[in-house]
Task: structure prediction
Amino acid sequence: MKKVVLKTLAGLFFVSALPAQVIAQEEPTTIADESETSPLRDRAEQVVALVNGEIEPEEVFTDAFLRAVPPDQFKAIASQLTSQFGAALSVESLGSPGATRSALSIRMEHAITKGAIAIDPSSASRVSELLFQTFDPVDDSLAKIETDLAALPGKVTWWFGPLDGTSPPIASSRAAEQMPIGSTFKLYVLATLAREIAEGKRSWSDQVTLGQARSFPSGMIQDWPENAPLSLHTLASLMISISDNTATDTLIEELGRDAIFQTVIDSGHSQPELNNPFLKTREMFLLKAGPKGRLETYQRSDADVRQQILEGIEDVDVPPNKVAAAFSGAPVALDVEWFASARDLANLLGYMGRTADPQAREIMAINPSMSKERREKFHYVGYKGGSEPGVLNLTWLLQDKAGRDYALTLSQRDDDVRFDPSSLELIAQRLLAYQP
Result:
């Protein structure tokens, strides 16, 4: 059986028994004759009922689908959809009703959900693929969006607006408050590298060798052989596109903590001292998965003592399963993190626009965390996000068709509960679709 995928990043829901690239991309046509039936249309109608919780997933999906995405997991996804966009009402359009795979649009109370569907004729025409990709809000408003953001659990902050400073933000709340941002901190590493390249100090093609110290996933090069040659461009691309932690730590080692911390200051960070010393990812993992006493000492210490604690910590051998266990439950020590306010991150993107080599924007665009259809609204889309239990950040750099740069950045923090990230991700999609 081929790999089955479930993706919920930034409002994109994909469930399939086949790779994503096989999804049909044909243009949907509105179904004019409600009396026309076909196996595909019948299953599409069942998806409407399924999203509303009126029938069970076992009645609709293939066994392969259900093995990959158990019924309770799909019900949780459906619940997130209906909580954001209301009940599913009807099949809005189906590209090829007589086929086995087609584009699909479903009308919900407050959005048109666009994606794709496929059925397996050898399995009683059950659904083998389902894609909920784009959500076009209906009768939405900025006030509704911000009300829903404020109602999320924990603390939520956001900033959405132009970077040129000539007009106020479109939406903003608690934008000056410091928040843990997870892997979004890697933008500070990218900004430092891209500035040094713009200044002629380095080149994207410069080679570094992979050392002994490896971080923990996410990523891939933690399993690569020692002394493997890697270009700065490759390391930066892996760091941003798949959030490779070992690539990140390799760049931090190459650039130096001091240079990156200076970028934190120069970009206009309102409380740069919160990021001193500037942690490597491996150090953060080892602090939180290591002895409780060491973690507590680090939490209450100043920058000098923290630096002393970090010296030699990378030599500690901690099994990967112990690290994974430390991050599999409730939030852990969210004050041991990388910090920025929403406004700080907007300032960073503006700083990069002034100082970074243009390749940095191309690297940020590798994984834009946005559907192709939504991206067509913009001239450019770049993205970096970050998370750990109790922490979520989503940050986009956007350029409209007139060439004006915007930032959308949202953060959520809950020190007590591991929240579901899909709620913030779905609301972010509504902001990205918002038309003033």
In short: Residues 141-436 form a domain with the Beta-lactamase fold (CATH 3.40.710.10). The longest strand covers residues 126-137.
